[in-house]
Amino acid sequence: MSTSVRGIRGAVTVKENSTEAILNATKDLMKQIVERNHLQPEDVVSVLLTMTPDLTACFPAKAVRSFPGWQWVPLMCASEVAVEGALEHCIRVLVHVNTDKAQSEMIHVYLGEAVRLRPDLAG
Fold first, then answer.
1. 65 catalytically annotated
2. CA distances for 117 relative to 52, 86, 89, 99, 102, angstroms
């Protein structure tokens, strides 16, 4: 099988807009994505991180850069679209990876209240 670029989704919620809460939640989310998908930094093409507009205390990419070997992975942060009634205090990630696995084999991770976003993938 040839190598393709695949996307792995994930999201987590935090209880407060604080640096500690954002960094800890992002680390937990990314750790689970990495472990469940058996990722190495060299497999990762890039990571897009978004936060809802109510989170402003820090950049979640700082948490990802703290992982050994991840300092060379391209990371980008953005603000999530502000949609009325959307889940608040939410950090989302889209990890692009080089892999020989099928898209259906990617393991997406949803934690906390973010399980509501994709209950079909969170289980």
1. yes
2. 13, 9, 13, 25, 23
Return the closest-CA partner of residue 57 out of 86, 11, 26.
Answer: 26
* Owner of token pair 């990876």: 97
User: Is the CA virtual torsion 93, 40, 96, 74 positive or negative?
Assistant: positive
Question: How do residues 23-72 score in pLDDT, each as one tens digit?
Answer: 999 999 999 999 999 999 999 999 999 999 999 999 999 999 999 999 99
Q: What Å distances lie between residue 72 and 42, 101, 107, CA to CA?
A: 9, 23, 23
Q: Which of 72, 23, 83 minimizes the C-alpha distance to 49?
A: 23
Tell me which residue of 67, 75, 73, 71 sits closest to 98, measured CA to CA.
73
Q: HSE of 112 in the Cβ direction (CA atoms, 13 Å)?
A: 19
- Catalytic residue status for 92: yes
Q: Which of 6, 58, 80, 90 is catalytic?
A: 80
